Amino acid sequence: MKAILVIIIVVLLLLLALVVGSRNAELISVNYLIAQTEMRVSTFMVWSMLAGFILGMSTILTKYLALRVKVSLLSRKLNKLAKNENP
Question: Any bridge partners for residue 30, and if so which?
């Protein structure tokens, strides 16, 4: 049930992105630190969202891995204390 709901939400978001992208075909000038380029608004939106997604996922993954290491260390410490308590 949860998987079906996720699939429906993803399909709706893709349809929304398709509609928004088709309505934004104007060219804009994008200035980088060392370069400048012209691209469509929809293309710029896709690249910006992709960069945000990658940055967000890397942040979440970093925090998740740090918490997993902390849980592992605390589990070892708990097991060691339990072992010393029951000889």
Answer: 37
